[in-house]
Amino acid sequence: MTECPKVVVVGAGWAGLGATYQLAKQGYDVTLLEAGAQAGGLVSGWKTASGRSVEAGIHGFWYPYRNIFALVKELELDPFTPWTRSAQYSPAGLEVESPIFQDLPRLPSPLGTFAYTQFKRLPLSDRLSALPLMYAVVDFDNSDAAWRRYDAMTARELFRQYGVSDRLYRESFEPMLLVGLFAPGEQCSAAAALGMLYYFILAHQADFDVVWCRGTVGAKIFQPWGDRITALGGKILTNRRVSDFKLDVSGSISAVICGDENFPADAVISSVGITGMQRIVASSPALQKQREFRNLMNLGAVDVLAVRLWCDRLVKIPRPSNACFGFDQTTGWTFFDLNALHDEYANETGSVIEVDFYHANQFLPLDNAEIVAIAQQYLATCIPEFKNVQIIDSSVIRLPKAVSHFAPGSYQHLLRPITAIPNLYMSGDWIITNHGSWSQEKAYVTGLEAANLVIQQFRQGNMAQILPIEADEPHIQLARSVNENLKSLLKFIGL
Q: What molecular function terms (GO) are annotated for this protein (predicted)?
């Protein structure tokens, strides 16, 4: 090509910003289109009418997020808290406390997780019932074959099949699913459950260690990141909702359509979530002609509810981040002490608490006052002092169909980075990738992978260097090798 290729990126979350930043660094004429009022998508924050900071839920940054940590270092940002400890509550009270695992002697995975996690009520016999599950962990290697093998099964069926006790499932594994995959076990793919549990908890002892943003992610990371993109020549345009694509005679996209505006494109990267992509498909005759995009309508998403409370007094909260289970059968929730996590609230005279509900279908129709009352009641069950506080201000943010739902059978409908449209590439936390990461890290990595595909297409610029996940420990590698060899032998002899 005789002039700089024009690339349009759709969606300004972790994936979209990652792709835009990489291409802008390589001198591409790149335009980022965001349907919302500011970059960041569901992770961005904003101010209430009274000037208080809120955001669409709190997002942790776990030890394996190697590429995001490298990014903030490159941007010369200091957005994160120190490593924090967490706790887990049920209506009966405190159930689990987690240490900072990297500070403890390292044991072979997953012994450190089991040995150092402090269960208050769960008997050892129930915890030991998880041992047979290690075969599934070894057998699930994040390959395409492994995903297809386990995706048709529910997570509940998986744990029952491997002999996990009902109590261990109810008090440990299902709470992890409710706050990690945002749905109860009978609604989650076993493949997604294994991928999530292995990445965050079982692969290496320190993987469950987490830091938090010292303010909204939008203010601490996305805003300065967007400024860097703009300084490099990239364009970030908000309030631009994509409705269709214009194709040329070869079947490639020649322009991205936003209402009355057309944005010429030599390549396009989609970085929107499942719900956003389904909206585009519903309005796009160009995409409807492709089966892979029509099949996206079979995917689902989960409702989230984010509640922020300002109290009239300080309440002592032992751990800054807390997960809760058993309050509603199909809903998990978390609460965070923002006085300990956010710089803005460090000197507040009253507690500032974030309460996030996942799979919150039954709460969304309620009015704000009812939701705030439920949040305070649940908090008081965990920490009784909350019974006596007065809520002096609050924010309720409803997020219908906001996060990816990895339901059983969904893998067959997920998209890969390369599509049937030659110059349309996909990224996001629901896109199939061999990298092995999860959640925000996965979204960011797939954005870099999509940018690399554009660079390969035009043969201009340097590829993004993507840090691989930490290698499996030697005993896990050996177990997987033995397992594969044994399966091959059994197949060879017809068993």
A: oxidoreductase activity
pTM of the model: 0.96
User: 289 and 411: one domain?
Assistant: yes
> How does DSSP classify residue 275?
H
SS3 call for 145: helix
Give the residue-averaged pLDDT of 252-264.
96
The number of C-alpha atoms within 13 Å of 395 and in the hemisphere containing its C-beta is 22
Cβ 39 vs Cβ 234: under 8 Å: no
* 391 located within any domain: yes
The rounded Cα 144 to chain-centroid distance in angstroms is: 20
The H or E element that residue 308 is part of is strand 300-311
Give the H/E segment covering residue 261: strand 261-264
What is the predicted pLDDT for the residue at 1? 45
Give the three-state DSSP class for 28. Answer: coil
List the one residue out of 93, 58, 46 whose CA is nearest residue 307: 58
Q: Which of 386, 399, 316, 389 is nearest to 356 (CA)?
A: 399
**Residue 110, preceding peptide bond in cis (omega within 30° of 0):** yes
pLDDT of residue 492: 87
State the burial class of residue 441 (Cβ atoms within 10 Å of its Cβ: 0-12, 13-18, 19+).
Answer: buried
What mean pLDDT do residues 432-438 have? 96
Whether residues 249 and 142 fall in one domain:
no
d(C-alpha 439, C-alpha 430), whole Å: 9
pLDDT of residue 2 exceeding 90: no
85, amino acid identity: R
- Residue 257 Cα distances to 158, 164, 269, 275, 280, angstroms: 44, 51, 14, 18, 10
Helix or strand or coil: residue 354?
strand
293 and 305 inside one domain: no
pLDDT averaged over every residue in the chain: 95
Q: Which helix (H) or strand (E) holds 267?
A: strand 267-270
DSSP of 379-428, one letter per residue? HHHHSGGGGG--EEEEEEEEEEEEEEE--TT-GGGPPPSB-SSTTEEE-S
What φ, ψ does residue 404 adopt, rounded to 5°? -60, 140
Query: Are 266 and 328 part of one and the same domain?
Result: no
DSSP 76: T
Q: SS3 helix, strand, coil % of the chain, rounded to 5?
A: 40, 25, 35
> Is residue 53 assigned to a domain?
no
Tell me how many domains the chain contains.
3
Contacts of 324 (CB under 8 A, 6+ apart): 88, 89, 90, 175, 332, 333, 334, 335, 378, 382
d(CA 98, CA 87): 6
Instruction: Express each pLDDT in 92-125 by its tens digit.
Output: 999 999 999 999 999 999 999 999 999 999 999 9
